[in-house]
Amino acid sequence: MRLPRHRRRQGRASLLDRSAVVSIRILAETPHLDAVAAWLHAQWWAADGWTLAATRDFLAAARGPRAPACFLAEEGGMPLGTATLDTDDLPARMDLAPWLASVLVAPAARGRGIATALVAHVEAAAAALGHARLYLHTPDAGRFYAARGWHGLGEEAWQGRPTLLMAKDLPVSRPGG
């Protein structure tokens, strides 16, 4: 998937400069595996009890097309953000699958639509596999996901704190139709 490069103008993203592109591909097929593993480990995974080595090993194996599949957005050889199609993401809800998980954009790349593109990419990957619904949980980004068609299913607990469980119904492709 290729996206237009956004140029900052007066603090707002613009689609005016289309000379460079952002691409999204499997993280393990890029030279950025160690850097992204460090990002995710510091952001969430360490708190879930993962070591940095285990985080890296999981991401190296998350090659898809079925879950787990970890995707990376990059531009000009630089990693911008990541998102994962995963089999589980919330210990209290092992009955639900698949999950949109670990959506994270580097601070310098925020405000350019990178997270939106990564979310759409994971949604499309799940739909292409025949999944009719995708789940996520978020302690603080419910409004972001709601603006992209996700709906709340209720509050759950994650690491002893409240998190919003959300879902999105996906357009499933049917053979011959």
Automatic annotation (TrEMBL):
It holds the Pfam family Acetyltransf_1. The keyword Membrane does not apply. SUPFAM superfamilies: Acyl-CoA N-acyltransferases (Nat). Residues 22-171 form the N-acetyltransferase domain. Keywords: Acyltransferase, Transferase. This is N-acetyltransferase domain-containing protein. It comes from Paracraurococcus ruber.
